[in-house]
Amino acid sequence: MVTRKELADAVRVLSMDAVQQANSGHPGMPMGMADIAVALWKHHLKHNPANPKWADRDRFVLSNGHGSMLLYSLLHLTGYDLSIDDLKQFRQLHSKTPGHPEYGYAPGIETTTGPLGQGITNAVGMALAEKVLGKSFNRPGHDIVDHRTWVFLGDGCLMEGISHEACSLAGTWGLSKLTAFWDDNGISIDGDVEGWFTDDTPKRFEAYGWHVIRNVDGHDVDAVLKAIDAARAETGKPTLICCKTVIGMGAPNKQGGHNVHGAPLGATEIAAAREFLGWPHAPFEIPADIYAGWSARDSGNAAEADWTARFNAYRAAYPALADEFERRIGGKLPADWAAFAADVVAQIAAKGETLATRKASQNAIEAFAPKLPELLGGSADLASSNLTLWSGSKDANSAEGGNYVYYGVREFGMAAIMNGLYLHGGFKPYGATFLMFSEYARNALRMAALMKISPIFVFTHDSIGLGEDGPTHQPVEQVATLRLIPNMDTWRPCDTVESAVSWQAAIERNDGPSTLIFSRQNLPFIPRDAGQVAAIRRGGYVLRDADNARAVLIATGSEIELALKAQTALAGQGIPVRVVSMPSTSVFDRQGKDWIASVLPKALPRVAIEAGHPDGWRKYVGLDGAVVGLDHFGESAPAKVLFETFGFTVDNVVATVKSVL
Amino acid sequence: MVTRKELADAVRVLSMDAVQQANSGHPGMPMGMADIAVALWKHHLKHNPANPKWADRDRFVLSNGHGSMLLYSLLHLTGYDLSIDDLKQFRQLHSKTPGHPEYGYAPGIETTTGPLGQGITNAVGMALAEKVLGKSFNRPGHDIVDHRTWVFLGDGCLMEGISHEACSLAGTWGLSKLTAFWDDNGISIDGDVEGWFTDDTPKRFEAYGWHVIRNVDGHDVDAVLKAIDAARAETGKPTLICCKTVIGMGAPNKQGGHNVHGAPLGATEIAAAREFLGWPHAPFEIPADIYAGWSARDSGNAAEADWTARFNAYRAAYPALADEFERRIGGKLPADWAAFAADVVAQIAAKGETLATRKASQNAIEAFAPKLPELLGGSADLASSNLTLWSGSKDANSAEGGNYVYYGVREFGMAAIMNGLYLHGGFKPYGATFLMFSEYARNALRMAALMKISPIFVFTHDSIGLGEDGPTHQPVEQVATLRLIPNMDTWRPCDTVESAVSWQAAIERNDGPSTLIFSRQNLPFIPRDAGQVAAIRRGGYVLRDADNARAVLIATGSEIELALKAQTALAGQGIPVRVVSMPSTSVFDRQGKDWIASVLPKALPRVAIEAGHPDGWRKYVGLDGAVVGLDHFGESAPAKVLFETFGFTVDNVVATVKSVL
């Protein structure tokens, strides 16, 4: 019979050996949290290594993601498709075991972690998803959605501001199936944390409305198990289990100090650790009885089989709901979606309304959302400005559940929670703030792009058109910087039709996130033929052509109106120009040479117009073209005054075009 | 004798009338916090309206900056150079009274606020500055630095994650001269906060080690005064005064609801408010006795005169210290700085070391810092990775004071605290994290640029050269996006000499911030002649020319080595090319046409090489040139493997150059 200590030591030794082999990595956390992992993974975690995508599995998030070898060791030992050779490839190119856990690289990785604080925030999203999905689908006697979310986190996560945003919300929402284990080892990279981290963390979490279990010995598996029992017994609040640990436990000369955090132990200390732990086995050799002690294959198969039987009973009782559940969890759109969406766009085109695109966005949500219960909306305390509520919106945290999240003034938390909602499955989250405050959330947008997941980030008040609130709130460089995030599709539509199509594209996208950028102010409706409406999905297309055009005007969003007026003015001066609308540069760039050349003929000089930073447009206009843009901060004044003051006038565009002919 | 109510009502009425006149703005907060303002501004704030830059004034920060009319009213009424006509120009172009308080627009504005949570964080920096400066300059019997920092903040600031980072540090640092007034009105934009903000805020702040005064009636001036007395009596902790208020107090039909937050009251409600308050005066008419009741001109002059007398006594006792204090507060470099700095750079050039530029950065700090006690360093828990410590570093929060701040894992908090340290005066802060996590801090970098203040942001591990930690930690688009912030100078030096010069430029800059981007890995020293060393300050210059060059290679940082090797290889194939080093694109862009044309001759095709997002380089290479860059995420692997895998090879550069000839 293997002991708990042997189970934990297997994790310790695999971790220190893999870091040593890679000559890079973080042994301290895996060695320090190994006993907690035994308590959770051996005795509580509901999972099936043979099916990492089982819908009702518990979710486990390693928020202190630098300790990735802990998770890789656990996945390997419990029976996931992650071999010992995979562990030997730790931190090597195209391995399943990169330096931080990367979603999509190894089975059982629920989210990419490493950027501190975001893992716990993703987990809050996952726990919210479980709660809301359960309210939608569970029926008396049929709890088909009933799983827990477990998080490991360290001091770094707790220092990060986003932990405040996420954990405050988790408390407000009463996410009682969320349990976090705090690795309270008193050490961060700069040394003993007492010089920079003196929070009374238990008290802080009690202030958020959490159930807090203090002073648990993180190396006493029984103590941790007792705490987990208490967490499970709590039905109104999330639980924080405060585990006192020794970082690098098992490395006799280095444990408890910051040098064990982020560097290989070295051959001498590794030998000493083997002796200290009484571990006689060679690197990457795990005795069969320890594998057997860790394996979750049988228990996992049994757990999933039990759920499948219950789901079959649910299907017998509620066949339509069961189908819908599978559609939602599978991330599939309704079967008649394409025709439905085309009809929505056609109706909006037929109406021909002049609206602020944020209002056009709301109308698009109003049209699409009744068809898509997976749309889970929200705003960071700007619902009435972002216009993200629709007539069917209901607070997701109400007693009966719903489809709208009031995130409060927490942009970064919102975005990382949206990532967690999406990763859980069953939801297509959208959430909004002012475009300027995309900056507060920026790294969570990047994480969505890196994970190839597809939440929808809605940003309104997209330029100096915001007006009087002034330069702190007026985007200048924000659209340009969003366009630089790899795998992010950024849309800046110019009217109701482009707004609806950008929503449709974002809804249909399933390999990366979208940002939808909308105006505060009214923008005129632009008539288009059916071919042009279809061409919006290509990211850039000819909106108004001219015979024998001598130049191309490229514009987006609110500057389309200006481009069209300048086209008319130039025509009056005998200078025909083409107007191209380019709502999404990344989508346009993917269209292939022929489409690109047909929209932007090589021979014609180009002028881009956008009330934002000009530099990104050089990619399209080159050195011989020109950009009517804004390379400085805005000012506080009515929008109309600002556009005129900063050169967004027909006269200036006309003069600029003439300068490049 | 005017009553306190009349004083408060003057603020209320000016605020509601100015918002009405602008037809835009936020009346709710000024009307709700007017009584608190009477307590603080009438009875406690140490300031001199005739000299808003008096070194020992108290600092007042309106963290809920949307309530700007509160501050403008107070500045006007107490006697600053801000006229009633300025108030009438609220939110109009080029007025002193923009929508949010903008640093540099009106006297008495200590920092630009609006982006929530950053004001309180700036204030933490100001309070830290006061504490550290006092330890440097005060002498027994000569407390020439002895002032307080006062902050107004609302629910929004408290929900933002950055408030956690800042207030945790303020508690750890024991900033007892910092007092924050929480406008606890229970309302945010989406409505009653109980659906999304249920923190026990007093308990939360106690967990941070703050002195918390609960349940103060924010409309009872005596109660607020009593709380302020208690705050002043506390000498070990910052104080949070929790003020229950009614948002929009005085607007009889709208007060207490969210509709009063961010829109004009309207003529009807304004008339009702005048009646309700018993305020018979026309808009923008303030009776003389109320002006007299508010005026701080006499008391302010007296307070400053008292300090000046004490400073003169200090000067008599410590003449050199007094001179140094004035130099520091004036933001002036030492008189012999230019020669000193030139010597430092020359010595570094003479050494010719091959080092990681993060190590070159540390050497530059080591060389410059002994001359500059105003350099106040720090890192977000990555001192040993960022290499921001030097031999003279001492914890600023030690008993005797110092010059280094251990910020913990708090990137956004660090950056906004640095802004506060700079705004206070007396310090040139630098602070560091990994380049990736510049994203967590991004809006604080922008705020520094907007305010035209000059802290130094140090970002290391600047590309896939970071290696095994993988894509969550490998910058791709980050340098490109930093370059897009208006008024930000971003430097990515290629060796020890460029690193030292970029530090020198950042130290000397006084009209905007700098970001210094350094490599993890070693980069070879590049020999230069004196003219080339001088040319580094021009942002871009010819590093290795070639006779009859047929193309220009532009590179930065770690890719300079590759450019030089490609130049050699191309020369071997009979293709002479010029190599341009461009450590700072924004500095280069400011050099004027002649310099730019001399470095990048119009006729030559160009290839840019940078291990980062290519799009920004189109500005220099146009449509006919090429970029060897990276438009996708990185991977976890050793750095050398990644550079080769992703095309940063001589062969690829050579082929790319040939493709554009």
Automatic annotation (TrEMBL), chains A, B:
Entry keyword Amino-acid biosynthesis: no
A biological process term (GO) from this entry: pentose-phosphate shunt, non-oxidative branch
Keyword Transmembrane helix belongs to the record: no
EC assignment: 2.2.1.1
Positions annotated to bind Mg(2+): D155, N185, I187
EC primary class: transferase
Cofactor: Co(2+); Mg(2+); Ca(2+); Mn(2+)
Entry binding sites for substrate: H26, H261, R358, S385, H461, D469, H473, R520
Matches recorded under InterPro entries: THDP-binding (IPR029061), Transketo_C/PFOR_II (IPR009014), Transketolase-like_C_2 (IPR055152), Transketolase-like_Pyr-bd (IPR005475), Transketolase_bac-like (IPR005478), Transketolase_BS (IPR020826), Transketolase_CS (IPR049557), Transketolase_fam (IPR033247)
Domain Transketolase-like pyrimidine-binding: 355-525
Active site: E411 (proton donor)
GO molecular function: metal ion binding; transketolase activity
A GO cellular component annotation in the UniProt record: cytosol
Subunit structure: Homodimer.
PANTHER family assigned: TRANSKETOLASE, TRANSKETOLASE 1-RELATED
Name of the molecule in the record: Transketolase
UniProt source species: Microvirgula aerodenitrificans
